[in-house]
Amino acid sequence: MFGLNDLISLVISAFIILPVVIFMRELGYVIMSAIFGVVNPRLTIGSGPRLFKFWIFDVRKYYHLYSWYSYDDLKRKGKFAYVLIYAGPILINLVPALILNALIANDIVTEYETFWNRFLFYQFYYVLFDIVPMKTINGMPNNGMIIYEMLRYGKRVDYNNEPFIPSTSEVEEEYRHEMEELEEQVEEMEEAAEDMKETSGNKGTRHEDDVDEKDREERTTGGW
């Protein structure tokens, strides 16, 4: 049965453990590419409109399980460089996971064992789906596929002609246009309502004036 303790564990896993593991994974790209002289690196965390940007970190509005690392070029290129860059996310989770697992197995780490076991689970989870060569969303290769193609055929398959995450400028521009169109529609509706109100009021006034004028004419005629 799913109880309160399970709910607390789920919240901890979803909002603490999993984001940390994902951030570590993306950090693997950053560290390895920095070694080979990366040019204009960008680490997008989350999706949707930008919340803020600090250094290379572009933090978006919606939850940061969705992340993406990109760069323009490397100063020191080569097969070895590209292999290590895409091996970085694997190694940065695999090595600490193996060390932590050994510490738990030898009863060196005994406190908060449930927490650390879940941490290990997510680390090995991402290592598994990074290291096994496969195609992911939109047919894009994962890190394992990129490394495999580079080692076996000596070719790069990490090019992405279509941005996985829309650029901040595009997202913000689209959102701004939508809001402007919505505001224009609201203003037009308000103006139309105001015109109808004024027209209705003017008709009522003219009708009353016509009646009063008619009465005055009848009284005048009758008086003569």
From TrEMBL:
Compositionally biased region (Acidic residues): 180-193
UniProt KW Membrane keyword: yes
Keyword tags: Membrane, Transmembrane, Transmembrane helix
Membrane-spanning ranges: 6-24, 80-103, 115-132
Membrane among keywords: yes
Residue numbers spanned by region Disordered: 175-224
Biased composition regions of type Basic and acidic residues, renumbered to the chain: 194-224
Name of the protein described by the UniProt record: Uncharacterized protein
Organism: Bhargavaea cecembensis
